[in-house]
Amino acid sequence: xxxxxxxxxxGRIDATLTDLGxxxxxxxxxxxxxxxxLTCPECxxxxxxxxxxxxxxxxxxxxxxxxxxxxxxxxxxxxQLKLVLAEAIRRAGWSADLEVPAPxxxxxxxxxxxxxxxxxxxxxxxxxxxxxxxxIHMHTDRYADDNIDVCWVSSRDRIPWLCAVPAVxxxxxxxxxxxERWMVHDGLVRxxxxxxxxxxxxxxxxxxxxxxxxxxxxxxxxxxxxYRRIHLPGGxxxxxxxxxxxxxxxxxxxxxxxxxxxxxxxxxxxxxxxxRRAEEHRKQVERExxxxxxxxxxxxxxxxxxxxxxxxxxxxxxxxxxxREQERQQQEKARQEELARxxxxxxxxxxxxxxxxxxxxxxxxxLIDHVAALSMTxxxxxxxxxxxxxxxxxAYGIAVYTGRRLYGVVxxxxxSLGRLHTPTRVFVRNAHExxxxxxxxxxxxxxxxxxxxxxxxxxxxx
Length: 462
What we know:
This protein is of the alpha+beta class. The chain has seven helices and 23 strands. Helix content is 39%, strand content 22%. The chain is flat and about 105 Å long. It starts with a strand and ends in a 12-residue tail after the last strand.
């Protein structure tokens, strides 16, 4: 899809112009029989004249086009923005040519504005796709090599290169064909002398900005380093810009404010230098007085130091003796605690051994099968026992998992319930075992599930 095509006899024609730029009526190329042999100026493939649902005239590629043709892959939003730019340029009294290539192919302008008075040219680029700062600088430099100014225009939400090159951000109109309602919301600033900084200007019609740029009413200005915090309208929010479009008046106001700041800083520096010298003289006098006082105190300090060293040596010896005693007591305490821990482990292991002696392998298998069936009902996933049966972390019970998630612990030993991470679900054979578990007060009864399985040889638990 493009707005230009090559006529076999007349050369380049432009669908945005009433006479196609060559004194032709649209009907002379639209649905004619036999069909005019139009070609794409970018890839040379055959194209034909078409109308969009909104009656926008353009040229569409015939089937079989090259996938590398840039004109063919441009979006509808891109084409609409080019149309709006062309209309704004023409309203400003300049001629507008779309999709203009460089003679050497180094660039292709979306819309080339040409002054009817002196032939000056300004390229307008609709940039909606992502592009790096390096690439957009490279394209801008190519225009500069041919003495052509350029302004980049984008309707994207975030434009990281907005201040890297001459550019503005626009808000599309609704409908997009209403060119007069396209607004510039970022890329314009004015200098507020009273505020001492730049203020963003928003909601300016795109057509007005185009007219100002072409009429040299706006300049793309590199903002001074200390003024790059830009105040946003309607509040205290700010953004940072290193360059932006503005008027010469604002540029002069920035220079005036900077000169005022430099005068203030020079006066401040002079005052600070005077104060520094006065302070240095005062300090010199004070240092001489202090030297005399220090000499008098030095002798007194030497004697106090000697007495203090004697006292400190006594204190050091006392502290060392206390530290040795504390270390001995701590070692003894640690030894007693380790013995107590080993005894608790032994008692828990003995209790666990007795606890598991009360259930046979068949009864354990029966219990795990009931747990697996319950897990299928609750989670549609079968609970499987951990290979580390009866580990201390799970109170010498059997941990069962649904996938990688702990589903619960089967028959944890009542004497070791304090080792379970709470809350942990517990599964036992019957109400008798549940009573033994909950009687410890360490597990909430709601977390204990039993299956009313018979005691059989579990009578040793009574």
